[in-house]
Amino acid sequence: MNKTSDMAQIDGARPDRPTAAILVTGICGSGKSTIAQHLAHRLGAAFVEGDDHHPPENVKAMSSGTPLSDEMRAPWLDALAAAATELQAVGDVVITCSALKRRYRDRLARDLNNIVLVHLTAPRPVIEERMSAREHFMPTGLIDSQIAALELPAEDERPITIDVSGSLEDILDTLTARLRERLGEADGDPKGA
Protein backbone atom coordinates (compact mmCIF):
# COMPACT_ATOMS: atom_id res chain seq x y z
CA MET A 1 0.00 0.00 0.00
CA ASN A 2 1.41 3.43 -0.83
CA LYS A 3 1.82 6.32 1.61
CA THR A 4 -1.15 8.27 0.27
CA SER A 5 -3.58 5.39 0.70
CA ASP A 6 -2.16 4.65 4.18
CA MET A 7 -2.89 8.25 5.13
CA ALA A 8 -6.36 8.00 3.63
CA GLN A 9 -7.13 4.89 5.67
CA ILE A 10 -5.61 6.02 8.95
CA ASP A 11 -6.26 9.75 8.91
CA GLY A 12 -9.45 10.04 6.92
CA ALA A 13 -7.87 12.31 4.29
CA ARG A 14 -8.85 11.76 0.68
CA PRO A 15 -6.17 10.17 -1.50
CA ASP A 16 -6.53 12.97 -4.06
CA ARG A 17 -5.43 15.75 -1.69
CA PRO A 18 -1.96 17.25 -2.10
CA THR A 19 0.80 15.59 -0.13
CA ALA A 20 1.51 17.31 3.17
CA ALA A 21 4.78 18.45 4.73
CA ILE A 22 4.28 18.43 8.49
CA LEU A 23 7.04 20.47 10.13
CA VAL A 24 7.37 19.60 13.84
CA THR A 25 9.20 22.40 15.67
CA GLY A 26 10.13 23.41 19.20
CA ILE A 27 13.11 23.94 21.44
CA CYS A 28 15.46 21.14 22.45
CA GLY A 29 13.77 18.61 24.72
CA SER A 30 10.23 19.38 23.53
CA GLY A 31 9.82 15.87 22.14
CA LYS A 32 10.10 16.63 18.42
CA SER A 33 11.77 13.36 17.45
CA THR A 34 9.60 11.06 19.56
CA ILE A 35 6.33 12.72 18.62
CA ALA A 36 7.22 13.06 14.93
CA GLN A 37 8.33 9.42 14.62
CA HIS A 38 5.10 8.18 16.17
CA LEU A 39 3.05 10.64 14.14
CA ALA A 40 4.69 9.55 10.88
CA HIS A 41 3.98 5.92 11.73
CA ARG A 42 0.39 6.71 12.64
CA LEU A 43 -0.13 8.65 9.40
CA GLY A 44 1.80 6.32 7.12
CA ALA A 45 4.09 9.22 6.22
CA ALA A 46 7.82 9.40 5.60
CA PHE A 47 9.94 10.76 8.47
CA VAL A 48 12.93 13.10 8.27
CA GLU A 49 14.93 13.62 11.47
CA GLY A 50 16.46 17.09 11.40
CA ASP A 51 19.36 16.11 13.66
CA ASP A 52 20.53 13.55 11.09
CA HIS A 53 21.29 16.35 8.62
CA HIS A 54 23.63 18.42 10.79
CA PRO A 55 27.17 18.59 9.44
CA PRO A 56 29.78 17.15 11.86
CA GLU A 57 31.04 20.62 12.79
CA ASN A 58 27.54 21.58 14.01
CA VAL A 59 27.29 18.47 16.17
CA LYS A 60 30.75 19.18 17.60
CA ALA A 61 29.82 22.79 18.40
CA MET A 62 26.55 21.86 20.10
CA SER A 63 28.18 18.99 22.00
CA SER A 64 30.61 21.48 23.49
CA GLY A 65 27.75 23.82 24.49
CA THR A 66 28.18 26.33 21.66
CA PRO A 67 24.93 27.57 20.09
CA LEU A 68 24.83 27.52 16.29
CA SER A 69 25.14 30.74 14.32
CA ASP A 70 22.92 31.48 11.34
CA GLU A 71 25.88 30.70 9.07
CA MET A 72 26.25 27.28 10.69
CA ARG A 73 22.53 26.58 10.36
CA ALA A 74 22.28 27.42 6.64
CA PRO A 75 23.76 24.20 5.15
CA TRP A 76 21.85 22.13 7.69
CA LEU A 77 18.52 23.76 6.81
CA ASP A 78 19.23 23.37 3.09
CA ALA A 79 20.10 19.66 3.46
CA LEU A 80 17.01 19.06 5.56
CA ALA A 81 14.77 20.89 3.09
CA ALA A 82 16.22 18.91 0.17
CA ALA A 83 15.57 15.58 1.91
CA ALA A 84 12.01 16.58 2.81
CA THR A 85 11.25 17.90 -0.68
CA GLU A 86 12.45 14.66 -2.27
CA LEU A 87 10.21 12.58 -0.01
CA GLN A 88 7.20 14.87 -0.41
CA ALA A 89 7.32 14.24 -4.15
CA VAL A 90 5.97 10.74 -3.43
CA GLY A 91 3.88 11.20 -0.27
CA ASP A 92 3.32 12.90 3.04
CA VAL A 93 6.39 13.71 5.11
CA VAL A 94 6.90 14.57 8.78
CA ILE A 95 10.03 16.67 9.45
CA THR A 96 11.65 17.56 12.76
CA CYS A 97 13.57 20.78 13.15
CA SER A 98 13.88 23.26 15.99
CA ALA A 99 13.25 26.03 13.42
CA LEU A 100 13.50 28.58 16.21
CA LYS A 101 13.19 31.63 13.97
CA ARG A 102 10.73 32.58 11.27
CA ARG A 103 13.50 32.87 8.67
CA TYR A 104 14.54 29.26 9.37
CA ARG A 105 10.97 28.05 8.91
CA ASP A 106 10.67 30.09 5.71
CA ARG A 107 13.94 28.64 4.40
CA LEU A 108 12.72 25.09 5.06
CA ALA A 109 9.36 25.78 3.47
CA ARG A 110 10.43 27.42 0.24
CA ASP A 111 10.37 24.20 -1.83
CA LEU A 112 7.71 22.32 0.16
CA ASN A 113 3.96 22.37 -0.47
CA ASN A 114 0.89 22.07 1.74
CA ILE A 115 2.93 22.79 4.86
CA VAL A 116 1.48 22.30 8.31
CA LEU A 117 3.53 23.84 11.10
CA VAL A 118 3.32 22.01 14.43
CA HIS A 119 4.91 23.87 17.34
CA LEU A 120 5.59 21.84 20.50
CA THR A 121 5.72 23.59 23.85
CA ALA A 122 5.99 22.67 27.53
CA PRO A 123 6.91 24.31 30.82
CA ARG A 124 10.65 24.61 31.42
CA PRO A 125 10.76 21.91 34.17
CA VAL A 126 9.30 19.38 31.71
CA ILE A 127 11.91 20.34 29.10
CA GLU A 128 14.76 20.10 31.64
CA GLU A 129 13.57 16.69 32.84
CA ARG A 130 13.42 15.37 29.28
CA MET A 131 16.84 16.79 28.42
CA SER A 132 18.39 15.15 31.49
CA ALA A 133 16.84 11.76 30.69
CA ARG A 134 17.98 11.45 27.08
CA GLU A 135 21.20 10.61 25.32
CA HIS A 136 21.76 13.38 22.83
CA PHE A 137 24.60 15.57 21.63
CA MET A 138 22.84 18.74 22.81
CA PRO A 139 23.53 19.51 26.47
CA THR A 140 20.91 20.84 28.88
CA GLY A 141 22.89 24.09 29.08
CA LEU A 142 21.67 25.11 25.63
CA ILE A 143 18.04 25.44 26.76
CA ASP A 144 18.60 29.12 27.62
CA SER A 145 20.05 29.95 24.20
CA GLN A 146 17.17 28.14 22.48
CA ILE A 147 14.55 29.99 24.54
CA ALA A 148 16.30 33.31 23.85
CA ALA A 149 16.43 32.62 20.09
CA LEU A 150 12.84 31.34 19.81
CA GLU A 151 10.46 33.38 17.67
CA LEU A 152 7.04 31.93 18.33
CA PRO A 153 5.16 31.10 15.13
CA ALA A 154 3.11 34.01 13.84
CA GLU A 155 -0.61 33.80 13.18
CA ASP A 156 -0.04 33.84 9.40
CA GLU A 157 2.02 30.63 9.75
CA ARG A 158 -1.17 28.96 11.02
CA PRO A 159 0.65 26.88 13.62
CA ILE A 160 -0.86 23.96 15.44
CA THR A 161 0.54 24.52 18.94
CA ILE A 162 0.60 21.47 21.18
CA ASP A 163 1.49 21.38 24.88
CA VAL A 164 3.54 18.22 25.29
CA SER A 165 3.27 17.90 29.07
CA GLY A 166 0.78 15.03 28.82
CA SER A 167 1.12 11.41 27.78
CA LEU A 168 2.45 10.53 24.34
CA GLU A 169 -0.84 8.86 23.41
CA ASP A 170 -2.89 11.93 24.38
CA ILE A 171 -0.50 14.22 22.49
CA LEU A 172 -0.72 12.05 19.37
CA ASP A 173 -4.52 11.81 19.56
CA THR A 174 -4.85 15.60 19.84
CA LEU A 175 -2.32 16.26 17.11
CA THR A 176 -3.81 13.69 14.73
CA ALA A 177 -7.29 15.19 15.16
CA ARG A 178 -6.01 18.71 14.50
CA LEU A 179 -4.05 17.54 11.46
CA ARG A 180 -7.13 15.77 10.12
CA GLU A 181 -9.03 19.07 10.35
CA ARG A 182 -6.21 21.05 8.74
CA LEU A 183 -5.59 18.60 5.90
CA GLY A 184 -9.32 18.48 5.25
CA GLU A 185 -9.22 22.27 4.87
CA ALA A 186 -6.45 21.90 2.29
CA ASP A 187 -8.72 20.03 -0.10
CA GLY A 188 -11.89 22.02 0.51
CA ASP A 189 -13.49 19.83 3.19
CA PRO A 190 -13.10 21.48 6.60
CA LYS A 191 -14.13 18.31 8.40
CA GLY A 192 -11.72 16.06 6.48
CA ALA A 193 -13.72 13.58 4.36
From TrEMBL:
GO terms for cellular component: cytoplasm. PANTHER family: GLUCONOKINASE-RELATED. Belongs to the gluconokinase GntK/GntV family. Keywords: ATP-binding, Kinase, Nucleotide-binding, Transferase. CDD domains: GntK. InterPro entries: P-loop_NTPase, Therm_gnt_kin. GO terms for molecular function: ATP binding; gluconokinase activity. The lineage of its organism: Bacteria, Pseudomonadati, Pseudomonadota, Alphaproteobacteria, Rhodobacterales. This is Gluconokinase. GO terms for biological process: carbohydrate metabolic process. It catalyses: D-gluconate + ATP = 6-phospho-D-gluconate + ADP + H(+). Pfam families: AAA_33 (PF13671). Pathway: Carbohydrate acid metabolism. It is an enzyme of class 2 (transferase). It comes from the Bacteria. Its EC number is 2.7.1.12.
